[in-house]
């Protein structure tokens, strides 16, 4: 394992007791001789200068610790993956499938990781998304959906250059196994263990009841063409980034060469997480 000399700290600014927790975490790393680099919001909380823009932080550290919720982690996950920087998500919210480590297990998890135990590092597959103007990377999902006042949209799908279907719906979700417990789950998609080599295709309120969620190999190349004209349609990545689409725009989606190294608590496994967060199989 690469020696950790610098760690980047990312926060959800309005999380409860965030200043106290952040200060204690700084003290923990300083005692170990590890330099802490603070993103802008964290630096402002502790009145330690301007801080570093979040998007630049993974290029300056060997570890990122996120104090917040899944949204906070998703905002930096694609950047950390491209730099092969491991991420520890500490849950400061309610649900938190990605920020799965509870606050009372944070130091145990850090001690375990810094002690060289790679077994608590989970490799999470990501998606690469190409449009006519950009290339994006995401951890959870790619969503094509209509705006608030738009009517149903129509798209055509190809998988590995074979035309699969033309469909009408409120939108479409393409999700990784990690993203199977996010928007895809709400749309009726399956729960998939993170290490399974798969991609989920899940329609949002399809016009036909026979267009059901589908699981395909993650070696597949998916192409989607928007056929709808004159409506507000958006491409959204991990619920964080994206851009509008217009008629005949195409989006190509495949498994990325990058993987996120996500650190988990040594005290829990994936099924513990499902039971804790969803009450899975309890009733």
From TrEMBL:
InterPro entries: ATP-NAD_kinase_N, ATP-NAD_kinase_PpnK-typ_C, NAD/diacylglycerol_kinase_sf, NADK
The keyword ATP-binding belongs to this UniProt entry's keyword annotation: yes
Record-level GO BP terms: NAD+ metabolic process; NADP+ biosynthetic process
GO MF annotations, alphabetized: ATP binding; NAD+ kinase activity
Alphabetical UniProt keywords: ATP-binding, Kinase, NAD, NADP, Nucleotide-binding, Transferase
Pfam families: NAD_kinase, NAD_kinase_C
UniProt entry tagged with the keyword NADP: yes
Name of the protein: NAD kinase
């Amino acid at each position: 394992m690469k020696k950790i000399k610098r760690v980047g700290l990312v926060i959800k600014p309005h999380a409860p007791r965030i200043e106290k927790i952040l200060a204690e975490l700084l003290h923990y790393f300083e005692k170990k001789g590890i330099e802490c680099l603070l993103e802008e919001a964290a630096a402002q909380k502790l009145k330690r200068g301007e801080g570093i823009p979040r998007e630049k932080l993974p290029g300056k550290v060997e570890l990122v610790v996120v104090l917040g919720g899944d949204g906070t982690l998703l905002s930096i996950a694609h950047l950390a993956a491209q730099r092969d920087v491991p991420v520890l998500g500490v849950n400061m919210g309610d649900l938190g499938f990605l920020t799965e480590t509870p606050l009372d297990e944070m130091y145990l998890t850090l001690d375990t990781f810094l002690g060289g135990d790679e077994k608590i590092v989970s490799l999470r597959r990501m998606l690469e998304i190409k449009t006519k103007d950009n290339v994006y990377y995401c951890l959870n999902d790619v969503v094509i959906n209509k705006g608030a006042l738009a009517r149903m949209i129509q798209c055509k799908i190809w998988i590995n250059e074979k035309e699969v279907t033309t469909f009408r719906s409120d939108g479409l979700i393409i999700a990784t196994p990690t993203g199977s417990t996010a928007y895809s789950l709400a749309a009726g998609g399956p729960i998939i263990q993170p290490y399974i080599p798969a991609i989920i295709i899940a329609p949002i309120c399809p016009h036909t009841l026979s267009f059901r969620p589908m699981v395909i190999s993650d070696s597949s190349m998916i192409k989607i063409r928007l056929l709808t004209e004159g409506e507000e349609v958006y491409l959204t990545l991990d619920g964080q980034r994206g851009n509008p689409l217009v008629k005949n725009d195409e989006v190509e989606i495949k498994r990325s060469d990058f993987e996120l190294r996500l650190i988990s608590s040594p005290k829990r496994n994936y099924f513990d997480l499902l039971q804790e967060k969803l009450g899975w199989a309890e009733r």
